[in-house]
Structure formats: structure tokens, C-alpha cells
Specification:
This protein is α/β, with parallel strands linked by helices. The chain is built from six helices and five strands; from the N terminus they run E-H-E-H-E-H-H-E-H-E-H. It has a five-stranded parallel beta sheet with strand order 1-2-3-4-5, covered by helices on one side. Helix 2 packs parallel to helix 4. It is globular, with a radius of gyration of 17 Å. The chain starts with 6 loop residues before the first strand and ends in a 19-residue tail after the last helix. The model has no long low-confidence stretch (mean pLDDT about 90).
């Protein structure tokens, strides 16, 4: 039985080294229809797609990524305010110029960001939406059956519910 799985390659690290490593693999194994390269770092997607525009690229986004990181590390009020400003700038960048400049055709949003306004925003720009990290059976069902959204999960089988109890 063929599973028809797509590989979502979430890349962290140096943009040039990533492009140097990925481009030959895509060319040798013809991975263009089976692998999507995603990253929080727009430079990674830009470098990969600039060198080979046949590779599908996408940006990963979470509204308060920097603020949440700083909160977990108990930062001062000044640092928290700077983190909030940085999160606003990152959101503005993604929604205004990062997607077209990087050549992304996908945006991967944190599951808590999914709403009709978000879906309409990206749909009006011909950008596909996927979501992460969906581990609840109920959320998986809702996203796949009602919203028709692909999702990333920590669970291998669709019927698993790997939410920590």
C-alpha cells in the first residue's frame, strides 16, 4: 500500500550550507513533488529557491515566538518589550514582503493561529496553508475534514492521540 506521504523538511541552520546540501539531493533523487522545505528563517528559503526554483519552499510562523522564548527564560520587562516589538516586526515582514521575496508557496502556521481570517488572507494571495503541531485526534479530524488543511504532528498514525496527559 502506497502511503502518499509528503516529507516536510524543517530546516534550521546556515542558509548557504543548507542550500549546498539540499540542491544536489533534490536533483539526484527528483524530490520536487515529495519534499517541501520549510524554515522559520527566510534566508534559508530564499537561498534554496534562488538556486533551484523548482523546490517548494515555505515559511513557518508563530505569532509570539520571541516573546514566548524570553518568557520561558525569565527576562526583564525591557527585554520582554523588545521581544514583543520584534514579534510585531516579524509578523509585519511575513505578511508584507517575506513570502514574495523568498518565493514561498506555503506558510506553516502554529495550530492556535488557524482561523477564517488567516485562511482568507493567505488564500487571497495564492499561498497554501499548513499547520503544526497537531497531536489531538479531534484537532486532526477538524483540520483535515472540515478545513482541508495538511498538518504536522508528532504522532505517526492518524488515529493516535499523543497529547500529553
Amino acid at each position: 500500500k502506497k502511503l502518499k506521504l509528503k516529507v516536510i523538511l524543517d530546516v534550521k541552520g546556515d542558509a548557504t550550507k543548507t542550500a549546498d546540501a539540499l540542491i544536489p539531493l533534490f536533483e539526484k533523487y527528483k524530490l520536487y513533488q515529495d519534499v517541501v522545505v520549510t524554515s522559520f528563517n527566510p534566508f534559508v528559503i530564499y537561498k534554496v529557491r534562488r538556486r533551484n526554483p523548482n523546490i517548494i519552499g515555505g515559511m513557518i510562523f508563530y505569532n509570539s515566538f520571541i516573546t514566548d522564548f524570553c518568557r520561558k527564560h525569565r527576562q526583564t520587562a525591557l527585554i520582554m518589550n523588545l521581544a514583543a516589538a520584534a514579534d510585531i516586526f516579524i509578523r509585519w515582514s511575513l505578511y508584507s514582503w517575506v513570502i514574495p521575496v523568498t518565493g514561498s508557496s506555503i506558510v506553516s502556521l502554529h495550530k492556535d493561529m488557524i482561523c477564517s481570517d488567516e485562511l482568507q488572507h493567505w488564500s487571497s494571495r495564492n499561498i497554501d496553508v499548513m499547520t503544526w503541531t497537531v497531536n489531538s485526534k479531534i484537532q486532526k479530524h477538524y483540520l483535515s475534514q472540515y478545513l482541508k488543511l495538511p498538518y504536522m504532528t508528532d504522532c505517526i498514525r492518524e488515529e493516535d492521540d499523543c497529547v500529553t496527559k
